[in-house]
Amino acid sequence: MALEPITHVTGRAVFVPGDDIDTDRIIPARFMKCVTFDGLGEYLFYDARHTPDGDPCPHPLNDERFAGASILVSGNNFGCGSSREHAPQAIYRAGFRAVIAESFAEIFFGNSTQLGMPCITAAGPDIRRLANALENRPDLEVTIDVEADLIRFGDDAIPGEIRPGAKHVLLSGHWDPIQDLLDGLPEVEATTARLAYMRES
Amino acid sequence: MGKSLFEKVWEAHAVREMPNGQTQLLIGTHLIHEVTSPQAFGMLRDQDLSVLYPHRTFATVDHIVPTNELAEPYSDPLAQAMIEELRKNCADHGITFFDTNTGKQGIVHIVGPEQGITQPGTTIACGDSHTSTHGAFGAIAFGIGTSQVRDVLATQTMALNKLKVRRIQVDGQLAPGVYAKDVILHIIRLLGTKGGTGFAYEYAGEVFDRFSMEERMTVCNMSIEGGARVGYVNPDETTFTYLQGRPYAPKGAAWEAAVESWRSFASDPDCTYDDVVHIRAEDIGPTVTWGINPSQAVFIDETIPTVQEGKTESDRASIEEALTHMKFAGGEPIKGIPIDVAFIGSCTNGRLSDLKEVARYLEGRKVKSGIKAICVPGSQAVSRIAEELGIDQVFKDAGFEWRGAGCSMCLAMNPDKLVGDQLCASSSNRNFKGRQGSPTGRTLLMSPIMVAAAAITGQVADAREVFDLLVPTASA
Ligand code: SF4
Question: What is the pTM of this model?
Answer without folding.
Answer: 0.91
